[in-house]
Structure formats: C-alpha cells, structure tokens
Specification:
The protein has helices at 34-39, 100-103, 119-128, 133-136, 155-160, 184-192; strands spanning 12-14, 20-22, 26-30, 55-59, 64-65, 69-71, 79-80, 83-89, 107-114, 117-118, 142-143, 148-149, 162-167, 170-176, 202-204, 219-224, 228-235. By secondary structure, the protein is α+β, with helices and mostly antiparallel strands. The chain binds manganese (II) ion.
C-alpha cells in the first residue's frame, strides 16, 4: 500500500568515516551525575547500592538537530544547556532483559550532544507533579554531533574521557565520564527492563553540573575528550 501522506523523513546523524545513522528513538537519563542532581535540588544516593533506579525520559526522534543552527524554542524564557554523552545503539536487543555484560555489543558508536531543556517549564512541572514532556521533548531539543564508531573507543578508554561545553568561548560544564552514577552498560540494562532497544536508538546519558541559560546568538562547542565534537549556534525563535 502506498503512503497517503508525505511525513517528515527519518532524521539521520552523520558518522565519522562516512555514512549516516537513522534515528529510531531518543532515551534520556536524568540525574546521572551527583553534582548536577545536587544543583537541581535532588537527593544524591549515598552509595552505588543505594542508587535505586535511573530516571528516564524520552524525546521524539525528530528532536535531533544535525546542522549547526538551533532555533530558540517557543514558550520558554529559560532555555538551558545540558551537555551529554550520546550512545548510539546499532543492533536490535533480544527480547527480555539485557545483561550488563552483553550491553556493549549493541553499541554502534558515541557522540556528544545537548539535552536542551525549557527549565522554567520543567520547574513548574516538578512543582505540580506533572510530566516533563513539554520541558524536554520539544522540536530541535537534541542537537547531536557526528557519531564515532565504537570500534575506535573501548569501554576503559571511554571512562577516562572528559565531557565539556563552552558557550561563546567560556567554559560552562566539564566532568570526566568516570563520574557517571550509571555507566553505559548499566543504563542499557536498565532501559531493557522497560523498552526493547532497537537499532537506531540514541541514549543521552545525563549531564554534569553547570547547566545554565542560553540566548539567541550563543555559540556552543561540546566535546567528548578529543574524540567527538558538536558545535551549534542558537538562532532567533521561529515566528
Ligand atoms: Mn539531561
């Protein structure tokens, strides 16, 4: 049967060395760095044993921005940056819960991105016990840089990399990935309890402290060590 309408195309992220990665879903982890949980006024687990379950939320696949221009969103006056490691899933997971030790085999590659957040709407949602969707899952809320194939970075090397964000040349956020409360295999395991991971899924792994407001004209450079990079400019709101 032919499609009866023309819907937007599946978003695709560039891959270093050539080719593109079609995006299926975007999962995000909240409160995965203790210093950021603290700055947001959330409780920080006393130990790994006491960390409970991760906080997850999602963004639509077409929230991905692969170009350099990110329009300032509607309905907010407090757009925040959250620099994050982005994990790209390259293989469908089997049905059922994925063992931590089997998780790395699903990873296609890594990149760096921004979990852009309407912080004012998120604060209001938290205060009222409402969902975070309008604060997190808006159009163009997920700028992502080029993906680097996982073959180029082993798990031990990944943990030593530093995540950083500069805005207009000034350092805003910086932390080593060794500070993640849940590492990549642990997050894929936890997600697999809730969803079937599929080829094309992206996972935003959570942000360190230093989140702050962005304005039109701001120039952002996010880095994952010297391995991956994402650059974008916040442009005026669409009218
Ligand atoms: Mn985040």
């Amino acid at each position: 049967m032919d499609d009866l309408i023309r819907a937007p195309a599946t978003p695709r992220v560039h891959v270093r060395g050539g080719g593109r990665f079609p995006v299926h879903r975007i999962y995000c982890v909240g409160r995965n760095f203790a210093d950021h949980a603290r700055e947001m006024g959330a409780a920080v687990p006393a130990s790994r044993e006491a960390r409970g379950r991760p906080v997850f939320f999602t963004k639509p696949a077409d929230a991905v921005v692969v170009g350099h221009e990110v329009p300032y969103p509607s309905a907010t006056s407090d757009l925040h940056h959250e620099v994050e490691l982005v994990v790209a899933v390259g293989t469908d997971a089997p049905h059922g819960v994925l063992a931590v030790e089997d998780a790395s085999a699903l990873v296609f590659g890594y990149g760096v991105g921004l979990d852009l957040t309407r912080r004012d709407l998120q604060a209001e949602a938290k205060a009222k016990g409402l969902p975070w969707d309008i604060a997190k899952g808006f159009d163009a809320s997920a700028p992502v840089g080029e993906l680097v194939p996982a073959a180029a970075i082993d798990d031990a090397a990944l943990a030593t990399l530093e995540l950083s964000l500069t805005v207009n040349g000034g350092l805003r956020q910086r932390a080593p990935l060794s500070q993640l409360i849940w590492n990549v295999p642990e997050i894929l395991h936890e997600l697999s309890r809730l969803y079937r991971l599929r080829a094309g899924d992206l996972v935003f792994m959570g942000t360190p402290a230093g989140v702050a407001a962005l304005s039109p004209g701001d120039h952002c450079v996010a880095m994952l060590g010297e391995v991956a990079r994402m650059e974008c400019r916040i442009t005026p709101a669409h009218v």
